[in-house]
UniProtKB/TrEMBL annotation:
Parts of the chain that traverse the membrane: 12-33, 53-75, 87-107, 127-146, 158-179, 191-212, 246-267, 273-293, 314-333, 353-379, 391-411, 417-440
Localization in the cell: Cell inner membrane
Protein name as catalogued: Multidrug-efflux transporter
Coiled-coil regions listed in the entry: none
Source organism (scientific name): Roseovarius faecimaris
GO cellular component, one term: plasma membrane
Main location: membrane
Length: 452
């Protein structure tokens, strides 16, 4: 069995480029938020709400792409190249079919926001954003499939650099289309949506070209139009629970945004800024969780339970150390982070800043819970365990988290901080139950291997 230090180094070697790519991916949303915040605070609030709807549906569909990661890792470790190709192709098939199925939701955004009790201005702007951005869902999902494929093969550097390039392209397009620079029309929130579609399409083409040229042994695009229903079923059975799990978590945060919108547009803007900042630190946990999925998938393919547990211990220590640092930053320097998202001349600057500082304290509270549940899900996916975690997540996020947010925020009249305390409670339930499942399951498997 390898040492903890060996496993830490392996997780960092694989995880750091993934962390970088996740942060770069989030930076696309961050630059949208920053530039739209400079453009207009109400527009920022609408974009926060609309982008969360896009993200919720995107993350739901990403379950099929994320199923590709442990399946490819296990197949590659077992020397089954045909299975690598089959599950990757069918992951792409499932992603495209999902994207086509949900496109009508994006086209009815305005009516949806009005039905959810949002202000008419927010509904108009948010609906306009989704009507354009929705057409980027298919290339965005295909990007996730290729990222999972390449990450499972430990080709994470290209994932990082393509995503970094996407950030730069998004900034250029936003600058031109949101504000009307360089002779382009001033499109505001619509410009941000157009930029997002263009960036997702360019990212897919870049990754597809790399995969075709650098992994010819897998022949991903050879007869890609031919169905493989057996492999499709394997991807669907593993990926659908992952999608539902991620939907439950992301919808928890979307529900919090809807509730913040019930308070006021300024509260929604403050919430959006705090949530964006917290999302950056979550990318650190998510990158290491993805690395844990690949490493656990490799150990699972070899049925090496001892190194599976040792690797899990190592990555848990890494994630815990990062959480300590982020809590310290959130509690000691919230103002410099918040003001990055606002124009210095914004008339509501002080009000949004005051609300944001309080919410950042709430974000500090759930860092450990968020890190633990993300890592536990990554480890469980590595051993192809997704169905029970789906039910655990749905119960924790919705039965516990959303209920607690509503009761604390409105019944007990704690407002925005009450909503964020509810988020922390839901994440804590998920963290305890999911981590417990992984360690109990692996302990039993280890004992069975020893007896055998």
């Amino acid at each position: 069995m390898h040492s903890l230090t060996h496993h830490m180094r392996a997780h960092l070697r694989l995880g750091l480029p993934l962390i970088g790519s996740h942060i770069a991916q989030l930076s696309i949303t961050l630059t949208d938020a920053m530039m739209l915040g400079w453009y207009d605070v109400e527009t920022l609030g609408a974009q926060v709400l609309a982008s969360e709807v896009f993200f919720v549906l995107f993350i739901f569909g990403s379950g099929f792409a994320l199923a590709v990661m442990p399946m490819v890792a296990s197949a590659e470790a077992a020397g089954d190249g045909a299975q690598v190709r089959r599950v990757t192709r069918m992951g792409a098939w499932a992603s495209v079919l999902f994207g086509l199925a949900i496109l009508p939701v994006f086209l009815s955004g305005r009516a949806m926001f009005l039905a959810l009790g949002q202000e008419p201005l927010i509904a108009d702007l948010g609906g306009a954003y989704l009507a354009i951005a929705g057409f980027g869902i298919i290339p965005a999902l295909l990007v996730m499939v290729l990222k999972s494929f390449l990450s499972a093969l430990e080709r994470t550097q290209i994932v990082l650099w393509v995503t970094v390039g996407a950030v730069g392209l998004n900034m250029v397009l936003n600058y031109a289309l949101i504000f009307g620079n360089w002779g382009m029309p001033e499109l505001g929130i619509r410009g941000a949506a157009i930029a997002s579609v263009a960036v997702n399409t360019a990212s897919f083409l870049a990754l597809a070209l790399y995969a075709a040229r650098k992994t010819p042994e897998h022949a991903l695009f050879q007869r890609v139009w031919r169905p493989d229903w057996e492999a499709f079923g394997q991807v669907f059975r593993l990926g659908a629970p992952i999608g539902v799990t991620m939907l439950a978590e992301s919808a928890l945060f979307m529900a919090s945004s809807i509730m913040m919108g019930w308070i006021s547009a300024l509260a929604l803007a403050a919430h959006g800024i705090a949530l964006m900042i917290a999302s950056v630190t979550f990318m650190l946990y998510l990158g290491l969780a993805n690395a844990a999925t690949v490493r656990a998938g490799q150990a699972w393919g070899l049925r090496d339970i001892a190194n599976l547990r040792q690797g899990a211990k190592a990555v848990t220590l890494l994630v815990g150390g990062i959480a300590v640092v982020t809590v310290t930053i959130f509690l000691t320097m919230p103002e410099p982070l918040i003001i990055l998202f606002m124009d210095p001349d914004e008339p509501n600057r002080e009000a949004v800043l005051a609300m944001g500082v309080v919410l950042m304290a709430g974000a500090a509270l759930f860092q450990f819970m968020d890190a633990a549940q993300a890592l536990a899900l990554g480890l469980l996916r590595g051993v192809h365990d997704t169905k029970v975690p789906m039910w655990i997540a749905a119960f924790s996020y919705w039965c516990v988290g959303v209920t607690a947010s509503y009761v604390l925020g409105f019944t007990l009249d704690l407002g925005g901080i009450g909503i964020w305390l509810g988020l922390a409670i839901g994440l804590a339930f998920a963290a305890v139950l999911l981590m417990g499942r992984f360690w109990i399951w692996t302990a039993r498997s280890d004992r069975m291997a020893a007896v055998g």
